[in-house]
Amino acid sequence: MEPLGGAEFAPQTTYLNTASTGLTPARTVAAMKEAMDAAAGGGPDADLAWEAVDEARAAFARLAGVAGGRVAAGASVAVYAGLVAASLPSGAEVLVAEGDFSSLVNPFTMRRDLKPRAVPLEALADAVRPGTALVAVSAVQSADGRIADLDAIRAAARAHGARLLVDSSQGLGWLPLNADDADYTVCVGFKWLMCPRGVTFLTVPEDFGGLTPVFAGWAAGEKPWDSCYGPVEELAHSARRFDQSPSLLSYVGAVRSLSLVEELGTAAIGAHDRALADRFRAGLTALGHGCAAAPGSAIVSVPGLGHAAVRLAEAGVSVAARAGNLRASFHVYNGVADVDRLLDVLSGLPAGV
Prior knowledge:
By secondary structure, this protein is α/β, with parallel strands linked by helices. Helices cover 36% and strands 14% of the residues. The strands form 3 sheets. It has a 7-stranded mixed sheet with strand order 2-8-7-6-5-3-4, with helices on both faces. Helix 6 (150-159) links the parallel strand 5 (132-138) and strand 6. The longest helix has 22 residues, at 266-287.
């Protein structure tokens, strides 16, 4: 199995760490360099960059399965989770998965008048109860690649009148996800969507789901250039009212990265990534190692082997150490040779190293 990305990528290492940061396609690098050169020369880059924000918004909306008017463009999952947290009444219960990513969980714990409750991921659906106001969960767990049963969680949330916030940062791009299945979704672009850092998306319901744009600046106005001074007289009629003032050059790049994801297709990418992950799982078994239970995931976590990440890096193999485990993640620029290289290096490590 060869990489899918072709000439878009030329990794300098055996790069198996997309769950931390995706590699940047050549088309993205070229677009950002061109935009930077224009900015450095005082060229008319601003209008074009603003157009790129809306182009990226539209591309993300297609990938997420919602209308573009339901997508806000920003830079941080934590900020958007905080926006949702700010909408909840005092005393509201927020149900989260134990060990979920901090950027999703922490904004709810920082509001001391809320009641966050953490349960094991597999118990999340059964833990929803009449007093639950919101369920917040990652579609795929960062630490070990476990995939949430979003169908069951969504059904339980609806049965008890709770809203659902899904962080799709570790799934969208290889795992079929429809943002319409949740009240809100958040997603960073710099992982599986291979965008530059500084790109994050929020999806909201048509009626905005009770959110107030508490951090609204001039970019949130219906006519941004008429909203630069004093209170914004008219907020955007779409989810753009929740836009953060965007990192324009990053969004110039995001348009190109998202175009590559659309060209390759989530289904093809997912099949490719999972096949490589399955090959690694089989190889681990042959070497006598176990892995965290995450069938069907592009992320593989090897318990207790996190200390090996440094030695792997010295051998030119890039993985991550997370929660004490070794974490490998497979994407479009990887092929069978990368998996076999990782297994080969692991097989040669001394016991306990």
